[in-house]
Design brief:
Layout (H helix, E strand, L loop, with lengths): L1 E3 L21 E4 L4 E4 L3 H12 L4 H14 L8 H14 L4 H26 L3 H29 L18 E3 L3 E4 L2 E4 L3 E3 L7
Parallel strand pairs: 1-3
Antiparallel strand pairs: 2-3, 4-7, 5-6
Helix pairs in contact: 1-2, 1-3, 3-4, 4-5
């Protein structure tokens, strides 16, 4: 992979949104190489690695090559599709290697889904219509499952903690009811009662 000192970065549409991530460098596709367009080659690679959620240079190159192949139209990689895919990944902001791979698959499945939708809109042949409808349905379900998997992965550290036994000394107070703890939040479903009263059923 080589880099070129040409700068062409798209500006975010919401210019006033300071929380939006910095735009990633544009990628130029040549016949036998991929070039990152940024005046500073190392900074360009770093920005692209952050956009793709890649932990190192090898991961960044691997994901980028896979996205280039998935961007193809008629067996030829497409720069506009690739820029869209990188932008979507950057906005979803993968936080580890699993998320980087999953989000790359998500944008690739989305591209395939939209290609199927285009074919469905352009075909009049009944047999082809049914075949494309089935493919579109499967891709849509796959994408929904991927979104759910990403959500589960991101929330995996917020497992519920259940207290099975509780002892309260005389004069103490206890919460009677279901208590669920997620991360740093403790929520109770019932008010406190005196230990003398005991739990009510």
């Amino acid at each position: 992979m080589t880099t070129t000192p040409e700068l062409r970065i798209t500006a975010p549409l919401a210019a006033n949104d300071r929380s939006a991530p910095a735009p990633s460098p544009r990628i130029k596709l040549y016949k036998r190489r991929i070039a990152i367009r940024h005046p500073d080659p190392q900074a360009g690679e770093q920005l692209l690695a952050e956009a793709l959620g890649a932990v190192d240079r090898d991961a960044m190159h691997g994901i980028l090559k896979q996205l280039v192949k998935a961007s193809a139209i008629g067996h030829k990689p497409d720069e506009a599709n690739l820029a869209f895919m990188v932008s979507m990944i950057r906005n979803i902001a993968p936080k580890d290697s699993i998320e980087a791979m999953l989000v790359s698959q998500m944008v690739s499945v989305h591209m395939a889904t939209m290609r199927c939708a285009c074919r469905l809109a352009c075909t009049d042949d009944l047999a082809q219509h049914e075949s494309v409808t089935r493919a579109l349905t499967r891709l849509s379900r796959t994408f929904a499952a991927q979104v759910e998997a990403l959500s589960r992965h991101r929330n995996s550290d917020e497992r519920a903690i259940t207290v099975r036994s509780l002892s309260v000394h005389e004069g103490g107070r206890a919460i009677v009811g279901n208590v669920t703890q997620h991360a740093n939040v403790l929520a109770a479903e019932a008010g406190p009662v005196d230990a003398k009263q005991g739990p009510s059923l």
